Amino acid sequence: MTSATQLQQQPNGQGGDDDDGMGAEFTRTVVEAMGPATSPRLREVMSALIRHVHDFAREVQLTTDEWMAGVQLINAAGQMSNEKRNEGQLLCDVIGLESLVDHITFSAATKSTKGLTASAILGPFWRHDTPLRENGSSISFDTPADAQVVFMHGRVADVATGAPLADATVEVWQASTNGLYEQQDDEQVEHNLRGVFKTDAQGAYSLYCLRPTPYPVPQDGPAGKLLGLMDRHVFRPAHIHFMVVADGYRSLVTQIFDEDCKYLANDSVFAVKDDLRVRFEPRAGDERASLELEYNINLAKAE
Ligand code: BEZ
Ligand code: FE
Q1: Rounded CA gap, 249 and 157, in Å?
Q2: How far is CA 293 from CA 202, 277, 278, in A?
Q3: How far apart are the C-alpha atoms of 228 and 218, rounded to whole Å?
Q4: Which residues of the chain have pLDDT under 70?
Q5: Ligand 1 binding pocket mutation candidate from 80, 81, 89, 90 (most atoms within 8 A of CB)
Q6: What is the pLDDT of residues 94-119, one digit of tens each?
């Protein structure tokens, strides 16, 4: 029987861990059980997943109880999920997987990232049915007393030429100052703090929103439990979500982060990028808003 120490020194299931019959040879048998009708990409993904999961189990010498605790965590995430809540995604978020996959997807899709607005994770609170609103209107329907209102405006342009992109959709969504998105909170009207805006002929969009505030990710499910077990805090830094879509261009999903927020360096879901930090400036002469933010977005042509 190979010792745990030996196994740790021999990752990838290679070499001397085969003598108990459950090393590289066993893993190969499982991988090779896939039939000829498996698509090449699924074969690639599943082969790697099986190899890494087997290596992980061998490396940590996973016990039956520990494996079952993991199975129950995944089951609980599924049972909690519905159209308003995606606990499986949240579990991936707290271990950095959505951020990593976003980075891989964004890098693979763009030859040069110079000047291109960086992407960030979608997160679990996007809705597919957000209403279209007029430029210059507000997404806040019952502005909380402790909120600061921001006039946010900017242009969407082609990253290579700077040409404005008319008729692009700029979708924004944010949590309220109580830390909740409208679908988590019966006190907020439906679609509060979210809206879709269309750019005009100059590529411009504008809206009133709230200065974002930090909020905790939901703690009442397996993701919150896992954060607690790992002795980690639950806060996301203050941010606003964007999804920008223009004909013939790569769609962008991103977030902007208030550079004054104390959680920037340790986002509970690892989504902050330096390029996405913004400064809210004082705004004079507008009774609707005390702050202003100009945020311009550059998109790359679809290949
Ligand atoms: C969010 O920003 O809405 C979010 C992202 C990941 C996990 C939880 C919330
Ligand atoms: Fe968010």
Answers
A1: 10
A2: 18, 12, 8
A3: 12
A4: 1-19, 111-113
A5: 90
A6: 999 999 999 998 887 776 668 999 99
